[in-house]
UniProtKB/TrEMBL annotation, chains A, B:
It comes from Aquabacter spiritensis. GO terms for cellular component: cytoplasm. NCBIfam families: phoU_full (TIGR02135). Belongs to the PhoU family. Homodimer. This is Phosphate-specific transport system accessory protein PhoU.
Length: 241, 241
C-alpha cells in the first residue's frame, strides 16, 4: 500500500481502538453507578443508569460498522485483522455489560422502600468490587495490548464465581429465615447474578485481548467455579450440592 | 468481478447462510430439550443439553471467521455486506440462546429430587411454548429473507415479557406461602428469566433480518413489557408495582 494509505489505515485502526476504550469507560461507569445506587438506595442514580445505557448501545453499533467497513476497504491481515475482529467482539461484550448494569438499576428502583437489611447488600457490594477491578484491569490490558495482564484477569474469574455461589446460598437462607426478605432477596439474587455475569464478560474480553495480540486462543480450560446453578438449598437452610 | 468469482462469492454467501440456519436449528433443539428436561425432570436430558452447547459455540466462531474473511476478500457492498454482518450478529444471538438453554439444564440438575409441585413448572412451560414459537418463526424468516414475518416476531415479544412478569409474581407468592418452595422457586425464577431472554434474542434476530433485507433498522420503539425487574411483591403476597 502507498505510504499515505498505510497512514490512513493506521489512523482508522487507532480511531476504532479509541472508541472501544471510550465505550469501556462508559460501561465501567454504568456498573459503578448501578452498584452505588444499590448500596446507597439511590433511585435517582439508578434511573440515570437505565437512561445512559442507550449511549453504550449506540457506541457498539458505531464500532461494529466502522470495523466492518475498514475490513471491507483495507482487506487487512494478521494482527490488523485481529484488532478489528477484537473491536467487534469487545464492543459486543461491553454492550452486554451495559445491559446488565441497567438491569441492576431497574431492580434498585423496584426494591425502593422495602424492608431491606443493609447486611443483605454487603455481600453484593463485596463481589461488585472484585468484578469492577476485573473490568478495569481488562480494559487497561486492552489499551496496553498486554496479553499477560489479560491472562491474569482471566484466571481470577473463578474467585468471583465461587463468591457468587456462597452469596446465592446466603440469600436463600435469609429468605427461609424470614419471608419478609423474599422479595428483596430475589431482586438481590438477580443483581448478584447480573454482576457475576459482568465478570464473565470481563473474562471474554481477556480472551479476546489475548487472541488479538498473540493470534492464539486460550486453549486451557476456562476457570469456572460458579456452582450456583447447580446449588440447591433445602429447607431449613441445610446446604447441599 | 469476472463470472467465476461472482459464482464463488455467491457460493460463499450461501454456505454462511446455511451455517447460520444449521446453528439456529441446533440452538432451537437445545431450548426444546432444556424445557422438556425441566418439565419431565429428566436430568439425563438436562446434562446432554449442558454438553451439547459447546457445538453451538463452535459454530458461532466458525460463522464469524468465515464472514469476516469473505468481507476482507470480496469487499462486498449493500445487501451482500448486510447478509454477512447479519450472519455475524445472528450467530452471536444464537450463541447466547445456547448458553441460556445450558443454564436451564444446569438448574434442572440442581433441583433434582426436591419438593417440586408440578403446577410451579406449568407457567414456565406455557411461556416456553411461546418463546420456542418465536425462535422458530424468526429462523424461518431469516431462511426466507422475509422482513414481514420478522416484524411479526418482533411485535409479539411484549406478550412474552408480560407473561414473565406475572410468572415472576406467582413464583414469589409461592415462596411466601411455603418456605419449602423457596429453593425450587428461585431456580424456576432463573429458568423463567433465561427463557424470557431467549425471547429477547429472537427479537434481536428479527431486527437483524429486517435490517439485512431492507437496509433499514426498525426505528419504532421496541415493544417492552417485562416489568419484573421493576416488580415488587410485599409480604404476605400483596401485589405492587
Amino acid at each position: 500500500m502507498p505510504e499515505h494509505t498505510v497512514t490512513a489505515f493506521d489512523a482508522e485502526l487507532k480511531e476504532i481502538g479509541r472508541k472501544v476504550v471510550e465505550m469501556g469507560g462508559q460501561a465501567e461507569r454504568l456498573v459503578v453507578d448501578a452498584v452505588n445506587a444499590l448500596i446507597r438506595r439511590d433511585t435517582e442514580l439508578a434511573q440515570r443508569v437505565v437512561l445512559l445505557d442507550a449511549a453504550v448501545d449506540a457506541l457498539q453499533r458505531e464500532i461494529e460498522e466502522k470495523a466492518i467497513l475498514v475490513i471491507a476497504k483495507r482487506q487487512p491481515v494478521a494482527i490488523d485483522l485481529r484488532e478489528l475482529v477484537a473491536a467487534i467482539r469487545i464492543a459486543s461484550d461491553l454492550e452486554r455489560v451495559g445491559d446488565l448494569a441497567k438491569n441492576v438499576g431497574k431492580r434498585v428502583v423496584a426494591i425502593e422502600g422495602e424492608y431491606h437489611p443493609q447486611k443483605l447488600v454487603r455481600g453484593v457490594e463485596h463481589m461488585s468490587d472484585l468484578v469492577l477491578e476485573q473490568l478495569k484491569e481488562v480494559l487497561d490490558a486492552y489499551a496496553a495490548k498486554d496479553p499477560v495482564r489479560a491472562v491474569e484477569v482471566w484466571r481470577r474469574d473463578s474467585g468471583i464465581d465461587s463468591m457468587y455461589t456462597s452469596l446465592f446460598r446466603e440469600l436463600l437462607t435469609y429468605m427461609m429465615e424470614d419471608p419478609r426478605n423474599i422479595s428483596v432477596c430475589t431482586h438481590l439474587l438477580f443483581c448478584a447474578k447480573n454482576i457475576e455475569r459482568i465478570g464473565d464478560h470481563a473474562t471474554n474480553i481477556a480472551e479476546t485481548v489475548h487472541y488479538m495480540v498473540s493470534g492464539e486462543t486460550l486453549a486451557e480450560q476456562r476457570p469456572k467455579a460458579d456452582a450456583s446453578s447447580e446449588t440447591s438449598i433445602a429447607f431449613p437452610g441445610r446446604l447441599q450440592g
